[in-house]
Amino acid sequence: xxxxxxxxxxxxxxxxxxxxxxxxxxxxxxxxxxxxxxxxxxxxxxxxxxxxxxxxxxxxxxxxxxxxxxxxxxxxxxxxxxxxxxxxxxxxxxxxxxxxxxxxxxxxxxxxxxxxxxxxxxxxxxxxxxxxxxxxxxxxxxxxxxxxxxxxxxxxxxxxxxxxxxxxxxxxxxxxxxxxxxxxxxxxxxxxxxxxxxxxxxxxxxxxxxxxxxxxxxxxxxxxxxxxxxxxxxxxxxxxxxxxxxxxxxxxxxxxxxxxxxxxxxxxxxxxxxxxxxxxxxxxxxxxxxxxxxxxxxxxxxxxxxxxxxxxxxxxxxxxxxxxxxxxxxxxxxxxxxxxxxxxxxxxxxxxxxxxxxxxxxxxxxxxxxxxxxxxxxxxxxxxxxxxxxxxxxxxxxxxxxxxxxxxxxxxxxxxxxxxxxxxxxxxxxxxxxxxxxxxxxxxxxxxxxxxxxxxxxxxxxxxxxxxxxxxxxxxxxxxxxxxxxxxxxxxxxxxxxxxxxxxxxxxxxxxxxxxxxxxxxxxxxxxxxxxxxxxxxxxxxxxxxxxxxxxxxxxxxxxxxxxxxxxxxxxxxxxxxxxxxxxxxxxxxxxxxxxxxxxxxxxxxxxxxxxxxxxxxxxxxxxxxxxxxxxxxxxxxxxx
Length: 641
Prior knowledge:
By secondary structure, this protein is α/β, with parallel strands linked by helices. Helix 2 (23-33) packs across helix 3, helix 4 (85-98) crosses helix 19 and helix 15 packs across helix 16. It is globular, with a radius of gyration of 26 Å. The model is unreliable at 1-15 (pLDDT under 50). Residues 55-150 form the Thiamine pyrophosphate enzyme N-terminal TPP-binding domain.
């Protein structure tokens, strides 16, 4: 017998307060409803959509479910078409980085290779502590049609799919196997991406049948609270201990990391440095925290660092590490300032406690303000402050010299290209340090840009040197342009990285988001070839001309022709002077630009730098390797233990 009940007031109220939608529709409506308080480089705050849009490449795993939902909401939540899954995910990561983690873009792919193509981007975001919402399609939860096209079959685990590969490279992973799970999983995903300590990529795997399942959703689910940056303060005991440690120092040095930018702590950092006379050096992620010409800004630190910053690192008695992961390039593989005491201010306890340093767990901006108040009346040794100011001024003059001198031979190197790009802004009546955002990731260029690029605004130096992902550059430039349309976005990239992933140059044309790509062609992986030979090895498998087997043909790639084929305006320039002229034209253009110049990998900027631990074979028939091994062992004795 079937029993029925009259609806009560409660059940009627519940029915009236719900809406019937598919999982795909509910997910899209929730994302479209999210709003965030966003602070820009100028310090002004505005209310903007938290999710700016969805990059989508459709296939059978997401087109009828999530794809149909996106089409219905395209006016509230824009869908952007890309040309590769890794490219669109890289662009989404760059968008979040350009917004200092305050906004995101989502990415969706079909099942199988579309999903696994995004794994590199997930790892990039994980390493760099950046938010990325991954929405890959998945196989049928019912399993009735198994194995479907592109499905991985595990002989041991029936529920396994390729999306499980996202587990180690995301902060949060969930597979939605029933509609109601989205009520918990989606807010949890947003919570992870907006938590300053846990921030990173999240993955919600969406089985293609579940995307189409309908459910009655509470209406208040689509009224999420406004997102704002959380700023946890320091613990009183830790703050007092940190203040006491700093007061005991005479020659302190601040190392500014990416956390300074993510917490918009640039004003607090400048005030702290000026109030207490403490010089500042910047990591790759932290470059741009202070204006390049601030008297106490020593510039880049570490393996790719300036002589001013690295000299201070060797002489300081205390390092205040603010918002940095203390990566090997920043610390010279932990040998650069191994004798100094270490105080780490970081919102993430894992980073704050590295290398047994004294930890101060707090938001970078709040922590600096609290610490400055704790240190009222204290200043570093005046001779130390004055000496660092002199070193900083000398380095500023040296950068001008390095980037404006004519090439010493027929082919220029990176410093001269950087100078031409910068001076082309002055030719157009612009201040490159305030107008241009440079984007890069891998090869020799990160070293040269870290030392030589000038940034006067936070975020105008955009470098992936956490994962140093070859192929990030062009897609990253697109993501930055989506985030900062008012800026001139200049991608400076080597031929090796360009060849790995360039398709989003066509996407920039498709979307009408102009970027300028300056491609330096040194005919191969010049950076690694240089490392290979300088550690005693033979030149092998890096330069294109040395990789032609019997019966093969010398590589002759016309990058300008390729750029034009993708829809960009493109030209191959013959000199630094011609590059400067073409940059002026490119700045005035409305379509994406590709400027190609031949360069040499044999010359680099010798000023500065620090030891970097790269293991050398203990046994080799090559005398050069044996000598490199002895130097390697000697350098290891200077590492912080």
